Amino acid sequence: MAMELRRVWPAPTKDPVVAVEEGGVKGMVEGSAVVVVGRKGCCMSHVARRLLQGLGVNPTVCEIGEGSPEEIVLMDEISEMDGGDARILAATMFPVVFIGGKLVGGLDRLMAVHISGELVPILKEAGALWL
């Protein structure tokens, strides 16, 4: 009787959704290759996350409540990181995606970069993909 071997993968121990910590979004962006910032329960954030996971990237996801004081602070911080124009983007285009410390944009921009074939090289350059 032949013995069948099965590999069992452990369940992930860390939730990929994180809260904004003391360093804020800037600290999170500097500390992670890929960051997705979006509203809690937003289907667009889910799509951005799944697209990146499908490519083999495990993005850091930051979810905030819509209309919360945290949202305003977060938008101001994103705006400062991009020279003032990102507040309009963040207010209308959640999720906001950062790769390699740089603002990529919303889901529409992420999809455009993916469709054009530029996303994988950008992810490799940022150190989010090794292959």
Automatic annotation (TrEMBL):
Q: Which SUPFAM superfamilies match?
A: Thioredoxin-like (SSF52833)
Q: Which UniProt keywords apply?
A: Cytoplasm, Redox-active center
Q: Tell me the compartments it is located in.
A: Cytoplasm
Task: Specify the domain of life of the species encoding this protein.
Answer: Eukaryota
Q: List each copy of the Glutaredoxin domain by range.
A: 34-104
Stated family? Belongs to the glutaredoxin family. CC-type subfamily.
PANTHER family reported in the protein's UniProt record: GLUTAREDOXIN
Q: This chain belongs to which protein, by name?
A: Monothiol glutaredoxin-S3-like
Source organism (scientific name): Dioscorea cayennensis subsp. rotundata (White Guinea yam)
